[in-house]
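Homework help board

Subject: predicted structure for assignment chain

Our instructor gave us this sequence and asked us to write out the predicted structure in token form, then describe one feature. I got the tokens but I'm not sure how to describe them. Can anyone check?
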Amino acid sequence: MLWLCDRFGVDARRTVLVGDSVADMQAGQAAGALTVAVLWGSGRCEVLAAYRSWRIVEQPAHLTFLLADLTAQIRRRRPRPGRHNPPYLVPPGADHPN
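My token output:
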């Protein structure tokens, strides 16, 4: 994950890692990304829940809505010229795992 972020010049703390395994959750959390566990792959809910993902989704449509909502949050928070762009995707105090 860090390699991809570096390759595209993106701060990992401004990304979302979507995965279905413990290794996915560990990689995302180690990079500082928001993690979303999906249950339509190989992972089991009780196992993935132990890794305290930002969200757990059961169906692909739920992921679509979750990411659309997150995108809307980001758009509402676009910085004005000359203002600092904070290194988080959701407002302070939200349940980011890190």
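Reply (TA_rk): Your tokens look well-formed. For the description, you could write something like this. The beta strands are 16-19, 34-38, 55-57. That's the kind of observation they're looking for.
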